[in-house]
Specification:
InterPro entries: Cys_Synth/Cystath_Beta-Synth (IPR050214), P-phosphate_BS (IPR001216), SbnA (IPR023927), TrpB-like_PALP (IPR001926), TrpB-like_PALP_sf (IPR036052). By secondary structure, this protein is α/β, with parallel strands linked by helices. Helix content is 34%, strand content 15%. The protein has a 7-stranded mixed sheet with strand order 1-2-10-7-8-9-11, with helices on both faces. Strands 5-4-3-6 form a 4-stranded parallel sheet, sandwiched between helices. The protein binds pyridoxal-5'-phosphate. Pyridoxal-5'-phosphate binds next to helix 2 and helix 6.
Length: 338
């Protein structure tokens, strides 16, 4: 009860770190794309307090659930996540005093496991690969077991939860249309659950009906019917088609190989001083490949989902990069859509 407190809270001081989610800036990438007839603008979602744009769905799903009673005060949250969403849920759960079990796999970085544990999450590491050589199906199977055994468990289910895309419709994209005083022609976004691209596309199309929405997927991801294959970068791509996906809302898909994403990250760091994660490098690479073919003048909007710190042992480590497969020669032919 604020009125019973001897010290009243100051106006402008946030209630908690959860209230610091969102309101991220837009930045013009003029050094990386120094052309007069095109402007590339990035929303720095990496500035969210948990380190990624996944703070938005974590906050939105939990706060909506607390409001409508589907997440009661004694709820025990469960989710399968190898990184950003898990960290974001752990942060929000800590603030609201909720328990959280995060199901991860052996490919989850030790740093992320440590962060999850420091934030108070219980971490379960599945060990058995699924029939595709990945761990997603094993993780989902474990989540289903857990929700039947943990009392008051609530599965966040990011791949199928409509609140995921709504977090971006009412958050990320609402901010973008307020921040932009001129139309944008293209929206590029890296895809995994498809929550962010669809939530943003739905809002951006209301304001800019002619905008073209370009999905950036990883070579080896099956989201848009690609051939399953080896992928090393977390955050982008998936080994299953998300329930949330509606391909009719995506105008084009650009495939980016892990090596191209690494180069994109390094270009971004060298030219703009932006230290970002793998999927930001993927969208940079996708824009670099596509920009010469786009009608001019044009304005491109994109998202940089997370920071580079948690990728020091991957994207920013030359030995790790040396171990990546080469970019396949037929990559250009993998591009689908019009
Ligand atoms: C770093 C990063 N980039 C991009 C994405 C893709 O976002 P979405 O799941 O909304 O498609 C994710 C999702 O986990 C992510 O962690």
């Amino acid at each position: 009860m604020p009125e019973q407190r001897a010290v009243q809270p100051l106006e402008g001081v946030r209630n908690s770190v959860v209230d610091c989610v969102g309101n991220t800036p837009l930045v013009s990438l003029q050094r990386l794309f120094p052309t007069d007839d095109a402007e590339v603008i990035a929303k720095l979602e990496l500035m969210n307090p948990g380190g990624s744009m996944k703070d938005r769905p974590a906050r939105y799903i939990i706060e909506q659930g607390m409001k409508d009673g589907t997440i009661p005060p004694d709820a025990h949250l469960v989710e399968s996540s190898s990184g950003n969403l898990g960290v974001a849920i752990a942060m929000v759960a800590r603030v609201y005093g909720l328990r959280f079990t995060c199901v991860v796999d052996p490919k989850t970085t030790q740093t992320n496991v440590n962060i999850l544990r420091k934030l108070g999450a219980h971490v379960e590491i599945v060990q058995e690969p699924d029939d595709q050589g990945g761990y997603l199906k094993t993780r989902i199977r474990r989540v289903k077991e857990l929700i039947h055994t943990i009392p008051n468990s609530v599965w966040i289910n990011q791949y199928a939860n409509d609140l995921n895309w709504q977090a971006h419709y009412y958050g990320t994209a609402k901010e973008m249309v307020e921040q932009l005083d001129r139309p944008v022609d293209y929206f590029f976004a890296a895809v995994s659950t498809s929550g962010s691209i669809l939530g943003c596309a739905r809002r951006l199309r209301e304001r800019f009906p002619h905008i073209r929405v370009i999905a950036v997927d990883a070579v080896g991801s099956v989201i848009f019917g690609g051939k399953p294959g080896k992928r090393e970068l977390p955050g982008i791509g998936s080994s299953r088609v998300p329930e949330l996906l509606n391909p009719a809302e995506i105008d084009d898909v650009i495939y980016v190989h892990d090596r191209e994403a690494v180069q994109g990250c390094r270009d971004l760091l060298n030219q703009e001083g932006i230290f970002a994660g793998g999927s930001s490098g993927s969208v940079v690479a996708a824009i670099q490949k596509t920009l010469p073919k786009l009608p001019k003048p044009c304005r491109i909007l994109t998202l940089f989902p997370d920071r580079g710190d948690r990728y020091l042992d991957m994207v920013y480590d030359d030995d790790w990069v040396a171990g990546l497969d080469p970019v396949p020669e037929e990559l250009e032919a993998l591009k689908v859509g019009s």
